[in-house]
Design brief:
This protein is mainly alpha-helical. The chain has one helix spanning 2-30, and strands at 51-53, 60-62. Helix content is 37%, strand content 8%. It has a two-stranded antiparallel sheet. The longest helix is centred in the first third of the chain and has 29 residues, at 2-30. The structure holds zinc ion.
Length: 78
Amino acid sequence: MLPKILLTVLIVLAVFYGYRHLKRVAGRIGGGAGPQPTVKPDPPPPAVEETSRCPVCGTYVVKGRGRRCERPDCPFPG
Ligand SMILES: [Zn+2]
């Protein structure tokens, strides 16, 4: 009687582990549940640079490396 129970337990265990193994293999092949969403890399943030408007000539220049215009009274260093 006991060997029969043991055999049943072994079969159940074999089926259980076989099922788990099959699932793992299927997951490796199929890539899991459903198609994987393609991860798009985030675009680099736009270079936000502080600009200031020249009160004399009216052009916007990037602070720090602004280029002055042709006017002699332009406040930007150039
Ligand atoms: Zn200017």
